[in-house]
Q: What sequence folds into this?
């Protein structure tokens, strides 16, 4: 039954291929970024990582260190986008308090905490290696 509905959905959906598909996907991604920007946590991370980006290029780091620090920041942004998506999906399903909804939201938040800890550890290591040793 479930696959029949999925097949019907695919049949009713106009197929785009090639460059139009890439452009359409890009537009959907931009819409997702605009929607995510409405979240306070996304804006706070944008400010935080923008400041870190400036320091990445102002401080005297090697290219490899810069790459690692940039990747850590992007991982943090990606995790927060997933966390925001999880929260939106849970809220869409039901606004009632439910232990599984809480678990889903808390787990997404924990993933972001780990990503931020990664950023902090990598920055501490980079600063230690470059300026203390």
A:
């Amino acid at each position: 039954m479930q696959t029949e509905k999925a097949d019907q959905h695919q049949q009713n959906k106009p197929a785009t291929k090639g460059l139009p598909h890439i452009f359409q996907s890009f537009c959907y991604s931009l819409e997702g970024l605009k929607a995510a920007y409405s979240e306070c946590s996304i804006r706070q991370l944008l400010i935080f990582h923008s400041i870190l980006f400036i320091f990445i290029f102002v401080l005297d780091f090697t290219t490899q260190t810069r790459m690692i620090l940039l990747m850590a920041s992007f991982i943090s942004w990606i995790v927060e986008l997933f966390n925001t998506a999880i929260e939106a999906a849970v809220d869409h399903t039901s606004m009632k308090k439910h232990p599984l909804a809480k678990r889903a939201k808390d787990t997404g938040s924990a993933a972001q905490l780990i990503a931020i800890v990664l950023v902090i550890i990598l920055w501490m290591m980079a600063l230690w290696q470059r300026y203390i040793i």
In short: Helices lie at 2-12, 18-37, 40-58, 63-93, 99-132.
